[in-house]
């Protein structure tokens, strides 16, 4: 029973390390290519300013989900593009004009509204959850040092398993030789 638990634990840890490495590599590659870093329409985001305080702190991780235009409503917190900048704000008002919908958005901790009429194509997602104090974990998860460390650990585990397999095969061959010698006597 202990062997089974040990094997399941080891397999689980290896799978988690591989998932973390894949996430990290994907994040690094997409950020280098300046692509949208979302997985299945879900985006993890760390707000680096106090613009949405007290609703969102710098140490929080926000989870945004891509939504359709009809799912947005007043007071939703959204992630949006303003030129080349990614921002977070609250929808204060929704304007309908000649079949086009525009949004008046303001960060909670700012005095002024964003002056641009924000269109739905600029919206990257709606906040569906906030993970308090999760920013440190996400920053560590995204670090390149962690990726290198994980690859070293995976390489070490692979080499160790390979060594154990060879040792087991060598013992098996020695036992077979010993049995043959005993049978020949």
Question: Could you characterize what this model shows?
Answer:
With 185 residues, this protein is α+β, with helices and mostly antiparallel strands. It has 2 domains: 1-35 and 142-165; 37-133, Umud Fragment, subunit A. Helices cover 43% and strands 25% of the residues. It is built from 3 helices and 7 strands. Strands 1-2-7-3-4-5-6 form a 7-stranded antiparallel sheet, with no helix packed on it. A hairpin with a 2-residue loop joins β3 (77-82) and β4 (85-97). α1 (2-32) runs antiparallel to α3. The mean pLDDT is 82.
Helical residues, percent: 40-55%
Strand content: 15-25%
Name of the CATH class of the largest domain: Mainly Beta
Apparent shape = rod-shaped
How far apart lie the N and C ends? 40 Å
Spell the H/E element sequence.
Answer: HEEEEEEEHH
Number of domains: 2
The CATH architecture of the largest domain would be Ribbon
Radius of gyration computed on alpha carbons: 26 Å
**Quick one: how many beta strands?**
7
């Amino acid at each position: 029973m202990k062997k089974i638990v040990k094997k399941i634990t080891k397999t689980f840890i290896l799978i988690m390390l591989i998932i973390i490495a894949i996430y990290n590599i994907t994040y690094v590659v997409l950020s280098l290519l300046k692509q949208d870093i979302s997985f299945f329409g879900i985006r993890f985001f760390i707000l680096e300013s106090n613009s949405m305080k007290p609703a969102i702190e710098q140490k929080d991780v926000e989870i945004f989900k891509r939504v359709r235009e009809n799912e947005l409503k007043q007071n939703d917190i959204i992630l949006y593009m303003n030129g080349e900048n990614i921002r977070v704000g609250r929808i204060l008002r929704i304007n309908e004009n000649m079949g086009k919908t525009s949004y008046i958005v303001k960060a909670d901790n700012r005095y002024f509204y964003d002056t641009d009429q924000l269109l739905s194509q600029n919206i990257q997602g709606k906040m569906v959850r906030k993970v308090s104090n999760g920013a440190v974990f996400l920053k560590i998860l995204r670090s390149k040092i962690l990726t290198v460390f994980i690859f070293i650990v995976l390489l070490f585990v692979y080499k160790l398993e390979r060594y154990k397999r060879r040792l087991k095969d060598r013992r098996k061959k020695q036992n077979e030789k010993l049995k043959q010698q005993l049978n020949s006597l």
